[in-house]
């Protein structure tokens, strides 16, 4: 991973560049009335698009899967070892990406002050990026090529963004399918809720008209952003971690299933192919063509076969 510049190093530079752009756009957003929308938009961009950029590593996932299949056939290691080693080897790079991006955006935007709030933002971004990487590994194990993987992965993350609670509030989502169960298994919905709680709880915002009492962050979360305060932000972070583990387990299950099912599928496909080949005229065993020679019921006198004993006294053709 460290030797391939495009695997993580280029992605680190891109994340840093995008973080600087986001920090400059939302620089010192403040706590005014219009800052409520700005803080929500910045949190939605970080939880949505900045995690969406993780699909840039999908070509490397495809190459890594090719190496794994070859080494697995040679019996070098098992599926569980591959998944664990892949996560451990990528973890330092994910820490660099999340820590650098969160540091730039957090202090340029001037989110909720405090070291614990900052570390929560780092962990939230770290787990979100890890979930997207695990999701793309699942896609890489299913699809046969790079193009299909990017299309399916981008479409899946797009659905996650649509049901995360930013473009439409969670209480307003259609209950069938989109709220139950999509929003509950959506890592981005839980990550965004935790990010909003981490930033707005304990902060007071100005109202639209001067002289009125300030709006508490808790009121903004429940009334304007549709975020429930029945559980803490750490519960949201724990759910994101659980979704990460679930994706890794799904990745393990798919690889084990392919390992068991592919030989059976290849055997069935081979038998079916041979069956179709046998039905082709060029592969049929046809009887030889009948002879067109005129057959007579009695042999001619020229071809009468005599025994050797009866041929005594006959003239030899050499005489």
TrEMBL record:
Residues annotated as transmembrane: 6-26, 38-62, 82-109, 121-140, 146-170, 234-255
Membrane topology listed for this record: Multi-pass membrane protein
Domain ABC-2 type transporter transmembrane: 2-198
Pfam families: ABC2_membrane
InterPro entries hit by this protein: ABC2_TM, Plant_ABCG
Any one GO cellular component localisation term in the record: membrane
Cellular compartment(s): Membrane
Molecular function terms, GO-annotated: ABC-type transporter activity
Keywords: Membrane, Transmembrane, Transmembrane helix, Transport
Main localization of the protein described in the UniProt heading: membrane
PANTHER family with a match to the protein in the record: ABC TRANSPORTER G FAMILY MEMBER 11 (PTHR48042), ABC TRANSPORTER G FAMILY MEMBER 13 (PTHR48042:SF15)
Family per record: Belongs to the ABC transporter superfamily. ABCG family. Eye pigment precursor importer (TC 3.A.1.204) subfamily.
Name the UniProt record assigns to this protein: ABC-2 type transporter transmembrane domain-containing protein
Organism: Handroanthus impetiginosus
Lineage: Eukaryota, Viridiplantae, Streptophyta, Embryophyta, Tracheophyta
